[in-house]
Specification:
Strand order of the largest sheet: 1-2
CATH topology: Rossmann fold
Structural class: mainly alpha
Distance between the termini: 13 Å
Number of helices: 7
Order of helices and strands: HEHEHEHEHHH
Helix content: 40-55%
């Protein structure tokens, strides 16, 4: 939901989607392709199997002892920024926008200070890529309202952490249902 709303709001020229070995990768890639097509954006996909490094719901295993929540994947956003940055340098992109929102602060790598540090680090490297999180201070519902994204386009969102179909029981599905109910008065 967050990435779709951000893409609709900010309209970057290129969307990058990464299959890093997460259980929901195939559905996420298909949804991202449809949204990019609907927004007339170039869509880049990367496939790098890091599933042996994952933890919890997103790889279909038990979370590590250090996990703050069941879908925690160690250094996930750092990994995603690094992989996206590698592709960005190759295709001339100078800014990586991420769809993190205020509730992502339950993860250390979902907080504003993490993105500020990532921005500084990546800007020092070849390519001088900037990292921004334009919605980091918003709730998902605020981001969706601000973006003006249609409910139809938002319908492509795949929030489940456990696989290609919504399980209805993971934190991603719960968030999806709660935001949909807040915005539209129903969970569908």
């Amino acid at each position: 939901m967050d990435s779709i709303a951000l893409a609709h709001w900010k309209r970057p020229e290129v969307a990058i989607t990464i299959d890093y070995g997460q259980k929901a990768a195939a559905t996420e890639l298909a949804a991202a392709a449809e949204v990019a097509r609907g927004l007339a954006m170039r869509h880049e996909t990367l496939r790098v199997d890091c599933s042996s490094l994952g933890s919890g719901d997103m790889v279909g295993g038990a979370p590590l002892a250090a996990a703050p929540v069941t879908e925690w994947w160690p250094f996930r956003n750092q990994m995603l920024l690094t992989l996206a940055g590698m592709r960005a340098v190759a295709i001339g992109i100078v800014e990586l926008m991420v769809g993190s929102v205020a509730s992502d602060g339950s993860h250390a790598d979902g907080r504003a200070e993490f993105y500020a540090a990532a921005d500084r680090l990546m800007s020092l490297q070849e390519g001088g890529i900037r990292v921004t999180a334009p919605a980091i201070g918003m709730t998902t519902a605020e981001l969706i309202r601000t973006s003006g994204v249609s409910r139809e386009m938002l319908g492509w969102a795949h929030s489940c952490h456990t696989g290609p179909l919504a399980c209805g029981d993971c934190r991603g599905c719960h968030k999806h249902f709660q935001v949909t109910e807040e915005l539209y008065g129903d969970a569908y």
